[in-house]
User: Fold this.
Amino acid sequence: MSISNLKDPSLLRNQSYINGLWLDADSGKTFPVIDPANNQTITQVAEMGAAETGRAIAAAELAMQSWKNTTAKERSVLLRRWFDLIMANQDDLAMIMTAEQGKVLEESKGEIAYGASFVEWFAEEAKRIYGDVIPSTSRDRRSIVIKQPIGVVAAVTPWNFPNAMITRKAAPALAAGCAIVIKPAAETPLSALALAELADRAGIPAGLINVVVGTAAPEIGSELTSNPMVKKFTFTGSTPVGKLLMQQCAQTVKRTSMELGGNAPVLVFADADLDKAVAGAIAAKYRNAGQTCICANRIIVQDTIYDAFVEKFTAKVKAFRLGNGFEQTTTLGPLITAKAAENVHSLVVDAQAKGARVTTGGEIDPLGDAFYQPTVLSNLSNDMRIAKEEIFGPVAAIYKFSTEAEAIAMANDTEFGLASYLFTKDASRVWRVSEAIDYGMVGVNEVAISSEVIPFGGVKESGQGREGSKYGMDDYLEIKYICMGDI
Ligand code: SIN
Assistant:
């Protein structure tokens, strides 16, 4: 199985999609999209820059003028068609994703369904954008609140979820009546372009969805953040880049929503079901080879069960099969680039130098430069880089605590606050700890916390705003107050 097995090869696009047209770069330049499993070029795609981005924004602004006046039902019908087409092409979209991103094919299929679920959800939510009538302070007045689309949306999306992080932003934008310009990660433009192709086939009018691909992220990003026609900027990526984009957006006072880095703790109490806690921590750690913002970054285990936990955890991790995501036996794919594998290894080397024990893995694998061995580290301490930095790779770091207060303090000892998890059978502790830890999301005896119906997002330096759920529409709407006098 490989990308050459696509049932519909016309899903593989290599230009940008602007104003309903497939376009080359003004410069005629292209850049390669690389398969991280074998370092081979899948295809060349057009290398867009600021000028093409500016034109996409202008097209979006124009397209919005009629879209914002459509009924919710009209918008809903088109979104639903897009959803149906995404699901009908799930296998092909998954193959494109595995080729450019590396994740195991089954995981790619899962992400396509996950991504599509946002389109279905917001197709439905479009019909529930309610306003308000506020009891008035005077008899001859009425106070009304209506909600209107915020304006052109710009989205910068990451390579780790090349489909779902786009639909989670584009679907609410369109449902609200906005148009969007998307700059996907240069590592994974093909999934984004395939989504645009399906939006086109769904009949979504020209200019409402624009996908601009290129490697010149600062140049494209600065057009998106400075152009006054853009009213809302949404980003998923690292905290340092998010801070920079927020600063840039401040010049034109754009609304921003930011889904940034995490340092997710998994607290495992001695009263937890040990096997379930091990399985949960493994699932939270190794999803997408450890490359998600909500991956378990610190597994924090009570001292009385620490050795047993590490032993069971390590035994399961040893059974993983590293390999090309297209092979059926593979349970863990490559990282996105060789550089990513080097970064992960530098964290392991630093931890080892400061006393960490490697119970399995610990090296870049002979399979290839981007393959990092599934790794387990124990005997960890807070002075190690791995305790503070987002690992973004298949390395489990297992820490020890003795009291509940200590576990809470360790969980909160970070500038991040995206996802967190805890395993315990004590119902009082569930409430106490869930309320005491500073995170936007808490999984209790459960790590599969993401879906279209829940508010995904973080606190502290993990970002602002919520994606998905009934709250996910708010960021794309303005509240307008109308005061009616002389009644
Ligand atoms: C992310 O890592 O940014 C998203 C993960 C998810 O949606 O579950």
